[in-house]
Design brief:
The protein is an all-alpha fold and 110 residues long. Helices cover 67% and strands 0% of the residues.
């Protein structure tokens, strides 16, 4: 779940944060958004963390959801993807399809 420095800078811009005093909070919300999105796609997301980080659709979902959590300061236990911006839910559905294609392809190779 490590976020590269250039990606973190982009996330900070996305969240309209131009200071470093809330970096730890922003990173925590990123980790929560990462888990929410990845676990909405598959229950074995921890084994496929690299796939999520490399998939072009993933940041399209995780950045807006991180911004949503950051802007609304939602407590972790109160979060629910049904409150997420519509673009996040749309991207999660596309990620599910891409993940299923990946799984089918890997099964066919065996």
């Amino acid at each position: 779940m490590e976020l590269a420095e250039q990606d973190f800078d982009l996330l900070r811009k996305h969240c309209k944060v131009d200071h470093h005093s809330e970096d730890n909070l922003l990173k925590a919300y990123y980790e929560w958004a990462f888990v929410d999105i990845a676990s909405a796609v598959t229950s074995d997301y921890e084994e496929n963390e690299d796939w999520f980080q490399k998939h072009p659709l993933f940041h399209r979902a995780v950045f807006p959801l991180t911004a949503y959590y950051f802007e609304n300061r939602i407590a972790y236990i109160e979060r629910n993807l049904s409150y997420a911006p519509q673009m996040v839910l749309s991207t999660v559905h596309k990620l599910r399809d891409a993940y299923m294609e990946k799984m089918e392809k890997s099964q066919n190779e065996v």
